[in-house]
Amino acid sequence: MANKKTHTKTKAGGKPATPMPPRRRIFSMRAIISAVTVSLIAISVVAFGSLAERNTRQTLNEEIEGRLILEARNLASLSVDALLSDYPELTLCPLVSEIQHDRTDIAFMAVLDHEDKVQGHIDLNIIGGGLPMLTDLQPRQALHTLLPNEKVLANTNLVVVSVPAQHANGRQVGTAVVGLNQSYVDEMVARPRQAFLMLTIGLLVAGVGVSLLIMSFLLRPLGALRAGLERIGRGDLASPIQLNDKTELGLLAETVDGMAGQLLKSQAEMLEKERLGAEMSLAHQMQQSLLPDGEIRQGSCVCHGAYAAAAEVGGDYYDIIERIDGRLGLVIADVSGKGLAGCLVTSMLAVLIRSLHNRYESPSDLLVNLEKDLLSTLAPGTFITVFYGILDPETGLLVFASAGHCPLAIYRANKNQVDWTYTKGIPVGAMRNGALAKTLADSTVLLAPGDVALQYTDGLNEAWNAQQQEQFEFSRIAEYLVETAPQGSQSVLENLLPRIEAWTAPDPLGDDFTLLAVERIEVPSIRETTDHIATPTTISVLRRREHLEEMMDDAKRLYLPSRMEDLALLTDWVADCLDGRPELADCKDLVETSLFEVCANIIEHGYRNQGGHELALWWVPTTGTEQEWSAAANNEDGPRPDGIGYFMVCDQGTAFKNENWTPPDLQDPKVRRRGRGLGWQIVHLSMKRVVYTPNTPAGNLTLLRFDPAKTPVR
Amino acid sequence: MADQLTMTWEPNPVSIPVLRLKGRLDVVGANQLRDEARRSLQIAGELNLVVDLADLQFVASTGLATFLLLTEEYAEVGGTIVFAKAIPAVIQVILLLNIDQFLKLAQTEASAFEMIGA
């Protein structure tokens, strides 16, 4: 197969030329309309001319036949006397010649006697014989009323009228015959036809010219219209066509301009919508980022939150904030506006509450001051219903205030029923004259183990069932809590969204709703937890257990409350542990400081400065008997036992990572200013070995191997 | 049980303020010390300060971090803070961390005044 090369034309610069699109065949409207006009006129004229000619020919035939009849009758009446004479030809031939003279339309005239012999004719040679013109004539339907024995005969060339010449007594003595050439009729018809044809052609030419002129004039705006449409096609919607035309084309141009304007507006609206969509998406992300992740477990309480969105961005918000005193700030709010505006107010609210939550012991005071801070930026007509509570996770005591928010529902495990707590506070921003402070009051509830408190936004109780024409209502919330709360607050939150979606089905959620659930749980004491060491289930735990049991045989134990001020108890306990070791007297303070740093670290990071927990400490002297240490004390140059034992600290707090800990570089002034890492530095410098093992069945374990030989006391 | 931290301003023959610490210097005490020393520097305008540690029985890492912070802050404005009369238990931790190189330590109040230049 031969190679087929293709060539592309290139411009001077070497770039390939843009291929031209195939030219489309265009039919001129002027030509089409002119041709149609001419055709219609021609058809009309021809039709009209044909009809007119037919009528003319018929009329002419009637007239000629009438004339022929009259001519023949006249000739017959003039010939009667001559036909009765002896020599009729002498009279009749001159008579026929005189009548036929100058009559070009008459083909012939003749008078026949009773024997049909010619007695009068312009040609004398046929006198006394038959008339040859009558040989192939056929009778024709007369157009006029004929008298008896009168006939009209015709063939393709002639029309002949035969009229009997009758004597006064009624006897026929001869026949007068007058013939006319058919060509005469054709000539008579052809003459006006030619004139008509000329006139028609003239009119057609004039009509084409005039129609072309009119069409050109009328279609003149088409160029501007086409250019305008091409501009629109290229995306230029801002330049109007501006056609000053009074015809339908002008109206069309106005319509196109209007359409371009609408397109431009729609385009702008679409761009605006896309931009708003992007902003809404961003706002949605921002709003999601405001909400806490997962559950928060503190002391004997577990807090969960959930948010179910109906629109992209709602005005709901909840937060669980750790206060500096170890309690938890619980907040749930519903801004009256939705969308981006609601989201912005929500963001402001979140920031303000986070900045205020440690300043006020009273939730009412916090809400009142929150309103003061918000009023300057809160748009008129916008208000917020807010529930703010302070929960002591150790005791389950919840102090709260509600600014126009839904009543608090508490599932009481001992009664298996729901208690409702109603308040009288008005929403934040609803009345801007200080009325909020007068309506707010702190309420207190105590959650017992197994109780679940549920706070929510009105999207929950107002969820609409269109078929039953009913809201979900508080009663169904109570029924739902009785059903699910015994399985815990997680169960309450997990199952509520499907329940509400089933309630509103087939319609989607009409409003977003937010949930905040607090469950009081039973927390085993540290003693109970450490007892679990005796029932391990894995090999690694078994090893740990053996190690711990070995350590604990002779251990001195101390249970410390998880409060900084109680760490002073370490002083006496360390003294007791090292009692009888006078050689260790110099180390006692460092040991205490090390244990203080370990315990303070656990209280701060593991227990987040919350009281109510415990730390268990063991002192396990493992190597070196009392005698050995006494000997070592008496002989400073002699051998020393390898370390004197272990300190172990066990806690149930949140495990923290310390494997990345590195000694602080105190040569750096910034590090000295920050002062972080000194605690662990003390521990590592004063202990021979430090091992932190988080999340064992006994809790988080910190093992310290103490070696006075390592302690660099100067 | 050892006492919580108490702070008292001690009269002295020279015009340098002396702040006496007593008890245990841990997180809470460290914040109090920082605030008191800053108040002296920023509000009272005293560029120098002697901190008497004679009755300070225990110092935690947060207390030592405060010593370092205040030393930096006083030096920044051209002032001096001297920690005087620390007991061996406190000195032991300071030496353990090797931060004596950054702190001005004095055995007596007089030597503290001398270090300041009074």
What does this molecule look like?
The complex is a heterodimer of chains A (714) and B (118). Chain A is α+β, with helices and mostly antiparallel strands and 714 residues long. Chain A has three domains: 121 residues, 2-Layer Sandwich (Beta-Lactamase), CATH 3.30.450; 222 residues, PPM-type phosphatase domain (Phosphatase 2c, domain 1), CATH 3.60.40; 181 residues, Heat Shock Protein 90 (2-Layer Sandwich). Helix content of chain A is 42%, strand content 20%. Chain A contains 18 helices and 24 strands. A six-stranded antiparallel beta sheet of chain A has the order 2-1-6-5-4-3. In chain A, strands 7-8-19-16-13-14 form a six-stranded antiparallel beta sheet. A five-stranded antiparallel beta sheet of chain A has the order 9-10-11-12-15. In chain A, a hairpin with a 4-residue loop joins strand 1 and strand 2. In chain A, helix 1 packs antiparallel against helix 2 and helix 14 crosses helix 15. The longest helix of chain A has 55 residues. Chain A is rod-shaped and about 205 Å long. The N terminus of chain A is likely disordered. Chain B is built from four helices and five strands. Chain B has 118 residues and is α/β, with parallel strands linked by helices. In chain B, helix 1 runs parallel beside helix 2. In chain B, a hairpin with a 7-residue loop joins strand 1 and strand 2. Chain B is 43% helix and 28% strand. The N and C termini of chain B lie far apart (38 Å). The chains are: A alpha+beta (714), B alpha/beta (118). Chains A and B meet through helix 14, helix 15, helix 17 and helix 18 of A and helix 2 and helix 3 of B.
